């Protein structure tokens, strides 16, 4: 255990005694402050109570700390004196602020000491401090007294305390920048008076920052700038610099443009030739006083030539041209006249701008121009002059040009331009035309042309008429018209000069007439003579009465007459008919020598050629006569005329014809006489109508035929005694009987008696007489008489036994003349006449009731072969016998087995059988019969006979020696076959 106890030694010192029995050396250093002297002692442990004084370590003295404006403090001191020389020193720094503790200074410590008596304490933050220096020897230390206070101002960087903002170009920022001087800890170095300089970051060309003072010394570490501004609009950043300090950068500040004050050419126009757009077009900018583009401006900018006068500036863009975003970009600007120019741009109250000088030269040949215009008025055919110049695009004369220039009328119409020479070569760029004249009145412009050049159009020239010399139809009458109707287009006759221009001052009287009237009349309303008004006579209501082709003549004393176009006058609406060809006299039934023609006329008697009206001819007073024509009647007019053909009247007499057509006024022909002609034909006077008679019965008195000898018109030739013969026209087979027949006419008429026809039917009678046309009567219907007999109207045909006749018998009930009595339903019985033994059967009834006088039997047949006739009978009627019918043997129809005996048979035991073959009528059929096993018994059994095929003898085929080799489980079915017919028979074999 160690214990310390202080001992008083000498005044001003303190001694520590060590009382310990330990064996460990212990160094104890005490630093005791007693009247400013620090003593150090070296003690060693030992046994018992003892002490030793080794010496005293003196502290350094005269510690000097001068003031500084940087973060480095320079320390110096006087080395410790005494027997003990320190091995080194270390320094400490203590802030004067309350509660501060000492910290190492100059990078020293108890274990890292200095051997020098000065050091620099760097990186000291701004503040007020005191220092001490401690001498070190082994484990002993001695510390100096505290230094005087030293204040450190440690400026390291700048910073914007107040950012610039709210700037318009050339105007002081609304918020002026403040720059603070700071130490490394970001504290304001209030002691700093560093000079601070403001600038624009990047130093943009043409942009200037100005302030009331710049550079500006800091006051209490802050440089407060004023009046700072930037002249150009834009977004900028400011930098603050001061030698030795880290610079500061402001936030960005946007400098806006100011109010518009002026214009400026930001793109200058370049030189060109007359009338050709500048290759570089001018661009004008609206600016504020600092030259910034006022991008919100849409003010209209006007471009003018500054000097000289006489030239014209034009642009394809608008002029004035509203600015877009403060810029007016002109397009297509050009100056017409050669010269040197400047342009002036102006806009309201803004200061105008003047461009750089530009030269306009004479360009290449481009266009023509009328430099001397034609006169404003000239007479038709009167000479005038005009001048055309060859120019560049700007209108400058190309004095070296000899281009050929031609003049034409811009809108010539019917007019013609003539000049002394046209085209004309330019001389020194100018073509002077003389002797030019235009023939037609009107207002014109001239066009000047030259190959490859833009044409020129003159001012207007009005051409007035010359002296009256002639007339002309300026409005023609209609090319077509209707008789008696005003022309749709009424004629106008005009007084003209030699060139065809209307002489508007003329009031000459003009007369209108038909050039070649040919019986027609021209009328106008009110008259055909009319005074011209302003050189024109306009006629009204003019019309021509007759159809035809015409021209009109307009005449006036002293003037050449005019002839109109051709006028075709057509007929008007159909109004009436007229016989344009009268019918001539003839004989009955003979066509008129002259056939009638009827024409459709209008009210003026003109043929209406378009009419196809149907015209009907009739006898005005027919009195039993008939008018016939070979042409149609009614007959449609062709081109307004109905020309009839083959017209004739049958009866002799005196007649007129009437022509009619709808609502048209009818026409009556002149009188014509029809005479009796020569004998030509026969005509039945009686019977007058169709009639009926009974066969072989004399016609009734009123129906006995009477035939007249007639001319072609049907007029009786009363002097004729011609012999007339009657015959039946149809049908054949009947007979006409009269008493007598033929018969001579008496006074032209043959009257027959006792005439009758034997056969039923419908007939006409024909009357004949040499050289005369036959006559045909009305129809005669002959009906049957009383039933008296039967007749086979269809004979039965040959057949085979028991087979129906292919042709079945038909029996008719007839009168005495053989006419079928169609009203009869009498029953008819059919039977075999001869021979006996055979049987006749029919599928139809027998007797069979007649239908309409006819009994048509069906499926009648005879069973036995032979030759037969049939007899038909019915009550009291005379019977009828048919022609002979032959019945032959037919094909096999039935096969019949005779029973074999004895039966049954043993296998392979002989037996006999026979087969009878007959046709459908039971007649024996000569043929061969085949025998075989059809079925049953044993399928493998075999039938044998002396012959399995046997001929019939008297209809029987015999089979002998027949046997079956195997017994049958069931009876065998034997089959006999002949001519496709078979029959079977059962036989048992055991």
TrEMBL record:
Cross-referenced InterPro entries:
FN3_dom (IPR003961), FN3_sf (IPR036116)
SUPFAM superfamilies cross-referenced by the UniProt entry = Fibronectin type III
Which GO terms of the molecular function aspect are on file?
hydrolase activity, acting on glycosyl bonds
| Keywords in alphabetical order | Carbohydrate metabolism, Glycosidase, Hydrolase, Polysaccharide degradation
The question of whether Repeat is a record keyword is answered with no
Domain called Fibronectin type-III: residue spans: 59-159
- The answer to whether keyword Hydrolase applies is yes
An example GO biological process term is:
polysaccharide catabolic process
Q: What is the protein named?
A: Fibronectin type-III domain-containing protein
């Amino acid at each position: 255990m160690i214990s310390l106890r202080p001992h008083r030694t000498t005044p001003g010192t303190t001694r520590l005694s060590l009382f310990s029995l330990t064996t460990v050396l212990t160094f104890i250093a005490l630093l005791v402050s007693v009247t400013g002297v620090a003593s150090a002692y070296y003690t060693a442990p030992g046994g018992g109570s003892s002490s030793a004084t080794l010496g005293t370590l003196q502290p350094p003295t005269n510690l000097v700390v001068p003031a500084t404006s940087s973060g480095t403090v320079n320390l110096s001191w006087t080395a410790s004196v005494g027997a003990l020389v320190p091995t080194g020193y270390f320094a400490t720094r203590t802030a004067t602020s309350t509660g501060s503790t000492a910290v190492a200074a100059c990078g020293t410590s108890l274990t890292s000491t200095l051997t020098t008596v000065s050091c620099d304490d760097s990186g000291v933050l701004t503040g007020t401090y005191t220092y001490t220096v401690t001498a070190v020897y082994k484990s002993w230390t001695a510390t100096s007294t505290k230094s005087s206070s030293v204040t450190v101002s440690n400026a390291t960087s700048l910073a914007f305390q107040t950012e610039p903002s709210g700037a318009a170009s050339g105007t002081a920022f609304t918020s002026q920048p403040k720059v603070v001087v700071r130490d490394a800890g970001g504290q304001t170095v209030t002691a700093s008076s560093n000079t601070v300089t403001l600038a624009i970051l990047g130093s943009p060309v043409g942009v200037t920052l100005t302030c009331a003072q710049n550079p500006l010394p800091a006051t209490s570490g802050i440089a407060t700038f004023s009046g700072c501004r930037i002249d150009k609009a834009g977004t900028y950043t400011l930098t603050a610099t001061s030698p030795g300090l880290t610079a500061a950068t402001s936030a960005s500040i946007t400098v806006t443009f100011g109010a518009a004050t002026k214009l400026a050419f930001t793109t200058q126009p370049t030189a060109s030739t007359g009338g050709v757009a500048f290759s570089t077009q001018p661009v004008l900018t609206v600016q504020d006083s600092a030259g910034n583009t006022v991008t919100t401006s849409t003010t209209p900018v006007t471009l003018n030539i500054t000097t000289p006068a006489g030239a014209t500036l034009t642009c394809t863009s608008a002029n004035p041209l509203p600015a877009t975003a403060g810029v007016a970009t002109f397009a297509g600007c050009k100056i017409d006249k050669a010269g040197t120019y400047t342009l002036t741009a102006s806009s309201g109250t803004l200061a105008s701008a003047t461009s750089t000088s530009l030269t306009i030269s004479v360009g290449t040949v481009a266009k023509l121009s009328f430099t001397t215009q034609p006169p404003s008025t000239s007479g038709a055919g009167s000479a005038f002059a005009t001048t055309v110049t060859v120019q560049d695009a700007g209108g400058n004369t190309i004095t070296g040009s000899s281009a050929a220039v031609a003049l034409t009328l811009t809108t010539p119409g019917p007019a013609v331009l003539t000049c002394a020479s046209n085209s004309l070569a330019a001389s020194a760029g100018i073509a002077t035309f003389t002797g030019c004249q235009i023939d037609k009145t009107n207002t014109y412009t001239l066009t000047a042309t030259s190959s490859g050049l833009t044409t020129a159009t003159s001012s207007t020239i009005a051409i007035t008429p010359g002296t009256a010399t002639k007339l002309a139809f300026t409005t023609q009458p209609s090319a077509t018209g209707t008789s008696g109707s005003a022309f749709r287009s009424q004629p106008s006759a005009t007084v003209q000069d030699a060139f065809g221009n209307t002489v508007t001052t003329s009031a000459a009287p003009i007369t209108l007439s038909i050039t070649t009237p040919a019986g027609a009349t021209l009328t106008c309303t009110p008259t055909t003579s009319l005074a011209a008004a302003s050189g024109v006579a306009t006629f009204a209501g003019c019309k021509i009465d007759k159809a035809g082709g015409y021209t009109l003549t307009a005449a006036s004393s002293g003037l050449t007459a005019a002839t109109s176009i051709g006028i075709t006058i057509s007929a008007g609406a159909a109004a009436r008919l007229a016989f344009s060809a009268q019918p001539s006299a003839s004989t009955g039934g003979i066509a008129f020598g002259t056939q009638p023609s009827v024409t459709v006329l209008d009210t003026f008697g003109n043929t209406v050629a378009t009419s196809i009206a149907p015209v009907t001819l009739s006898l005005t007073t027919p009195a039993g006569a008939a008018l016939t024509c070979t042409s149609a009647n009614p007959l449609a007019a062709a081109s307004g005329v109905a020309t009839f053909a083959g017209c004739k009247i049958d009866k002799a007499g005196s007649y007129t014809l009437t022509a009619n057509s709808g609502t048209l006024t009818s026409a009556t022909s002149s009188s014509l006489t029809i005479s009796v002609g020569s004998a030509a034909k026969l005509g039945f006077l009686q019977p007058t109508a169709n009639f009926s008679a009974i066969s072989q019965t004399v016609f009734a008195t009123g129906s006995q035929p009477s035939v007249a000898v007639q001319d072609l018109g049907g007029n009786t030739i009363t002097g004729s005694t011609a012999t007339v013969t009657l015959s039946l026209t149809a049908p054949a087979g009947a007979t006409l009987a009269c008493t007598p027949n033929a018969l001579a006419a008496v006074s032209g008429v043959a009257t027959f008696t006792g005439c009758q026809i034997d056969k039923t039917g419908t007939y006409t009678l024909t009357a004949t007489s040499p050289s005369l046309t036959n006559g045909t009567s009305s129809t005669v219907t002959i009906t049957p008489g009383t039933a008296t007999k039967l007749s086979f109207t269809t004979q039965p045909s040959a057949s085979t036994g028991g087979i129906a006749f292919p042709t079945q018998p038909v029996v008719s009930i007839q009168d005495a003349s053989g006419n079928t009595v169609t009203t009869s339903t009498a029953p008819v019985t059919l039977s075999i006449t001869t021979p006996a033994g055979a049987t006749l059967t029919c599928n139809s009834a027998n007797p069979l009731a007649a239908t309409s006088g006819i009994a048509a039997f069906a499926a009648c047949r005879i069973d036995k072969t032979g030759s037969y006739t049939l007899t038909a009978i019915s009550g009291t009627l005379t019977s009828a016998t048919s022609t002979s019918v032959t019945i032959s043997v037919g094909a096999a129809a039935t096969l019949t087995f005779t029973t074999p005996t004895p039966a049954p048979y043993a296998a392979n035991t002989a037996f006999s059988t026979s087969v009878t073959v007959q046709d459908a009528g039971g007649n024996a059929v000569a043929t061969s019969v085949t025998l075989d096993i059809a079925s049953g018994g044993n399928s493998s059994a075999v039938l044998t006979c002396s012959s399995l095929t046997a001929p019939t003898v008297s209809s029987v085929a015999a089979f002998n020696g027949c046997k079956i080799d195997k017994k049958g489980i069931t009876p065998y079915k034997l089959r006999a076959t002949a001519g496709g017919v078979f029959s079977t028979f059962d036989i048992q074999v055991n």
